Amino acid sequence: MKIAIREAYGQALLECGRENGDIVVLDADVSGSTKSAMFKKEFPERFFNVGIAEANMTAMAAGFASAGKIPFVNSFAAFVTTLGLLPARAFASYSKLPIKLMGAYGGLSDAFDGPSHHAIEDIAVMRALPGLKVYAVSDVAQTRWAVRHAVEDRSPMYIRLSRDYFPDHYAPGEVFEDGKAKLLRDGGDVAIIACGLMVEHALQAAELLGAEGISARVVDMFTIKPLDAGAVLECAAKTGAIVTAEEHTVIGGLGGAVCEALCEGGASVPVTRVGLADRHAECGPYAKLLHKYGLDKDAIVAAVKKTLAKKK
Hints:
It is built from 13 helices and twelve strands. It has helices at residues 5-19, 31-34, 37-42, 54-66, 77-80, 85-94, 122-127, 140-152, 198-211, 229-239, 254-264, 286-292, 297-308, and strands at 23-27, 47-49, 70-76, 100-104, 133-136, 157-160, 182-185, 190-194, 216-220, 223-225, 242-249, 271-276.
């Protein structure tokens, strides 16, 4: 049965909790939304609802981490990366404590709650913190891997989740590697590097482009920090043109990270970034928001054609 990303997260967290008694879970009074309530039901003694107090929650997680626990901090992405930012900077980044910051409802997926709840700058904010790893999952199997990876890897990290259903791109048990992107489709004319929900839109765009004789390579860059710079440079070498796609502002997110890798690697190719322009988004049906703000397959197709026109 098809399940939403948030459901997959809740199930994976519960499974890991059964295996590892050091896992503790904190939530900012939204456990029904984040699905950390699944963990709460079975392990109430290891679950802490701190109320709407993300800064205090992240600071509490630092105390648990200092005592050898593995704290998962849960709230909407828009709040865990803003209200929780100062303690995340002090305790997860500077102090290197293994705090796992879980950003639910990433991008525009909290569609009807409007600009205050949209997380459109979270990746840019969190990847700027020294030593903090950043991931954006694209399906159920990858979500399950991310939770287990968070338990096994003692690094502080931010994992961006969504409330929505994503089509599965990977079989259960797929092997992922920290810092290594996944090639989902090969192609020689252009490379589309995407993360999160935009991976599915990238694949749909590649199909449409293929019907027009344009061969598009699609890469799932779920590991944004550490970024797979090698995969980026390979895309540049094999296609000579790159489009990035993310449910995030075009400033400082995946597109920015890819451009940094190209610059540092000495690769000069045309790049177009598909993402939210320098603005906030209104509320409304999720699919309509994505289309209005250029975050779907049609926007990617247009970006590819624009980029190919600049290709040498």
